[in-house]
Design a protein that fits this description.
Elements (H helix, E strand, L loop, with lengths): L1 H16 L2 H18 L7 H12 L14
Helix pairs in contact: 1-2, 2-3
Length: about 70
């Protein structure tokens, strides 16, 4: 889906310039766009599982925990 690829590219550019606090939502949107780019529904079945897998791997910053900036 060329439109989803274009959306993903724009989100990747935003992500590159984003503050750390804004990165997780952008990564979620990027994951959803890329699942759509491959013709899968990010809200159902394998597409939903893939988006969940993607978000589970996003490092989380918390008290006493160091994480790599994403």
């Amino acid at each position: 889906d060329p439109d989803a690829w274009a959306e993903g590219a724009a989100l990747a550019a935003q992500l590159h310039a984003a503050a750390v606090a804004d990165r997780r939502p952008l990564l979620g949107a990027l994951g959803r766009a890329m699942v759509r780019a491959y013709g899968t529904d990010p809200d159902r079945g394998a597409g939903g599982a893939l988006v969940g897998w993607w978000l589970d791997r996003v490092p989380v910053r918390g008290a006493g925990r160091a994480a790599l900036p994403v």
